[in-house]
Known about the structure:
Rossmann fold, 4-stranded parallel β-sheet, 11 helices, 45% helix
Amino acid sequence: xxxxxxxxxxxxxxxxxxxxxxxxxxxxxxxxxxxxxxxxxxxxxxxxxxxxxxxxxxxxxxxxxxxxxxxxxxxxxxxxxxxxxxxxxxxxxxxxxxxxxxxxxxxxxxxxxxxxxxxxxxxxxxxxxxxxxxxxxxxxxxxxxxxxxxxxxxxxxxxxxxxxxxxxxxxxxxxxxxxxxxxxxxxxxxxxxxxxxxxxxxxxxxxxxxxxxxxxxxxxxxxxxxxxxxxxxxxxxxxxxxxxxxxxxxxxxxxxxxxxxxx
Amino acid sequence: xxxxxxxxxxxxxxxxxxxxxxxxxxxxxxxxxxxxxxxxxxxxxxxxxxxxxxxxxxxxxxxxxxxxxxxxxxxxxxxxxxxxxxxxxxxxxxxxxxxxxxxxxxxxxxxxxxxxxxxxxxxxxxxxxxxxxxxxxxxxxxxxxxxxxxxxxxxxxxxxxxxxxxxxxxxxxxxxxxxxxxxxxxxxxxxxxxxxxxxxxxxxxxxxxxxxxxxxxxxxxxxxxxxxxxxxxxxxxxxxxxxxxxxxxxxxxxxxxxxxxxx
Lengths: 263, 263
């Protein structure tokens, strides 16, 4: 099998990374994909960097056994803590979710807003990425803890979602772009957009898919055969509301999901 | 030191158990207390029963080293998974958070509502406890995932909290009692009460404190000396918004909190 025929790997600590997988599948419909969600050990945001790094290495080994041509770390915590280490160990390109969103924000800048979980915002990973691309940008970051459960409940475009968005984002309209720095947030775009009005929303999932496409093209790794693409799904546990969440984040149901052990 | 002079231990996977500690301190103002929150490994609800049991045993060893006269498992998951096993190992009485609330509900019954996290509701622990006390009771259980982040944000008595409560609890008014089956929910009593109107709300924290008082009195373990009481606080990690959450759940700030390792 030629390298270009291998699937793309997409890894997340849970199911939120399915929004990134969805963007990758939409941007690159002829590519095969393998998704792995470490649902038995989610959330990574509350764990120490050493533990997150170990979990990421175990996932890398899983994708090495499967055989992939590129790996997406579709998890903000994994990206901010372990991207460089995973890149050093991997024999294929590894794309994170932070740089693509930060790069797009800098193009829209100079006044940039970032929203994400407590863990992502306080890690400073987006702030560092933006500063490295363009030190002149100003950054205001806010964590929005209610957004994840709203997305998981599917309460994404109603009065409650809008009021929560208003409370978190009110007064933030005076920026040039707002980065949705959490894999769950693309589901809340409508409610966020109503508060932010004309401010462009930067969807990390879409920007990451764009970076995957660029990387494949630059390295001559794009799949050229015209056959239908295959998508495989793996998780380390099937928790409460599992199928419902998969459908919500991926935008469609998945027939077969395989449970695996990483350790 | 006499046994009666030893402190009470209160254990939770995180900080929510501080609502139980608060109820214990208010019901028994002359007792000394030791709180342990396993904040490095929260939430327990997503872990396997074997792992939860192991974590509870490690906490039990911590309280054995400290020396306590009674231990409260102020965590629904720990109680439903490990109460019996911890009781077998412990040389002192162990009180969980499920039986006290279930017992109070049965008195108010026969039509009982239970609200809690996905993990608690689907564990069936409250349903089993109620059936064991009174098989004739009917039980309707609902999980309310937004309530935990609302309580943590302190958005507990406003329009958003009321709308969320309305969406979760609407149509449930035709019951004789509603058990707040999660340590976070007492903070949302006002919003829940507005929806449930005349339905009595059973606060597991207060019921658990009552059971602690009964047990101490029955076993002659109540502290009789008149000196001021001492309260010590331990956690396994100090995550984001830590002090803010302590203040919210305990109702006041705590000056000194010691970080410990359990393993």
